[in-house]
TrEMBL record:
SUPFAM superfamilies: P-loop containing nucleoside triphosphate hydrolases, vWA-like. Gene3D superfamilies: P-loop containing nucleotide triphosphate hydrolases, von Willebrand factor, type A domain. Transmembrane segments: none annotated. Signal peptide: none annotated. Residues 444-632 form the VWFA domain. One of its GO terms (molecular function) is ATP binding. This is VWFA domain-containing protein. GO terms for cellular component: cytoplasm.
Amino acid sequence: VGKNVAVDRYLSLCGAEREYSQLHRDSTVSSLTATPTLEDGILRHEDAPLVRAALHGRVCVLDEADKAPTEVTVLLKALVADGVLPLPDGRILRVGDNVHADFRLVVLANRPGYPFHGNALFRECGDAFAGLVVDNPDVDSEVALLEDVAPSRPHDERRRLACAFAELRARHETGSLAYPFSMRECAAVARHLELYGSEDEGVGDALANVLAHDAYAPQRAMVAAVFEAHGFEGVADKLQRKLDGIVPSMAYDVEYTSIKGSGGASVPRTGLSAPKFGKVDPSGNPHVGGNTWAGGSGGSDTAGLGGRGGPYRLWDGKHVPHQVSDEAKAEVSEAARAEGRRQAQIAHKKRLEEIEGMTENEWDTYKGMLDRIAPHVASLREQLGAAKDRKSERTWLRRRSDGELDDDRLVDGAAGERLVFKRRGKPDPLDRKPTEEDEFRKRTLLFLVDVSGSMYRFQMMDGRLARMLEATMLVMEALEGLEGKYEYAIRGHSGESDGVEFVEFGQPPSNRGERLKVLQRMVAHSQFCDTGDRTIEATRRAISDVSARGFVDDEEERKHLVVALSDANFSRYGLDPRWWAEALSDSDAVDAHAVMVGSIADEASLVAGALPRGRGHVCFDADELPVVFKRILQHARIIDDGEEM
């Protein structure tokens, strides 16, 4: 956003002399205060910019401070808050003594997390500074900037460009886009147009050249759509052509249809006989009541929705279902219920066999789902991938020809040895063998998905099953390729089971075909399972299984994670939300959360309100899923909390 330019202009107006230093991940306490040099075999320490500014009354600008290690930023806090800073040569800087009265310190930093990958500087020492947030400019200010950058371009074009970037930033804030498009990219596009714009090369080409680094991401289509909505034609084609020259094209055609509706009209009661599938009406007409047709509603004996005595749930995907009363359901005999369960189990087994034998043509069953969540996948994957991994952190690499002078090799340097430097870097993996401790450090993530019968039954009312499937796909897609950091499992719960294994630990689906089968098995279980609710039992079992792994890190107490998704259908089965609250708090080694993806009336909000603070979440919109997951990951300290300075 131009922090450096703003500071330079400010110092110029003040007539202040500047000392500048750019920090980085390899910065050390000694490098912040002194710069060692070796001349003619003699070691000398020169004052670093910070010390020179303090002694001579200048302004020290420390750039990229969020990249520096914590021990370096703590040193800054000691100088600013305590007014004392020891130096390597024995001198001590003291405010009010040898520190010049005109000394000022300006620290520049970005917020933590993706895409800057910095530390939470403000959290460590923000209370010692006067914090100032430099945000992206408003549209009018950005238009004024673009007028200076590209004066020959039409005013309308500059304004539309600024508005398009403003919309991209808004989408990033909501979690729809992974990359926070800044003023820098906007100015770069305008500058490219000013220098190379012509009839043959317009805004689409400029965007393709400037944004090519994002072209391969799944968000390419959304970025192009934003610019085209603001009057820039052909952006998608230009980005695709630019992409074709960089990486091979990858495309998956999938489709998913979410149909919503509601029902509840009075249904005429039909006599009971025995469970059966029923006849299929080729005309596709709706059938309410009766005991003849499969896929109807409010009837008896046949497979359908809202009725009684049928073997399993079956929706025609078109018509609004009708519901019989609980009193009518109670008239079904135990023998008929048992026969219905037997038929459901047979049909379920047959459906699972069909799923295992799926062909490529069946990708068409959920094209819309994958396209819908692609931007969210990119955002979540970046955040998960950016999480710190101790075994891949940098260490001191010694015996180097450049870098920082190694104090342990000063004698060798004086004797003429050249390899007397050290620098921070990742150790050679060949020098280190993996240990059991490395496997233990992986974060264990267990996702409990609700595959109870109510998910299938009320899908047409509020789309809860679709949200569950999208959440599951989001998790599987985002964790692909991150097996070195995370080990995850996906387990289902319903009235029939408190642990249906869809993805087992250490066995993630290796491709999108296998991930599709996971979703299909979830739908099948929801369709054929028995009624009831075992959310609380499933939560306790999941936390018990995961807590057996202990803390990820005993020093920092970083925890494993359990996320339980449910449609909050507690009152129907006499469940008290406080029981769930107790289950979520079963283990100190596990951070457990509950996400309600469906509700009858306001039950989801009531359940969430009874859970421990920060552990209950309500999500009725698929677009909110990435935001909810991000909040959970921050609470579990898996990703940075996004504090801004």
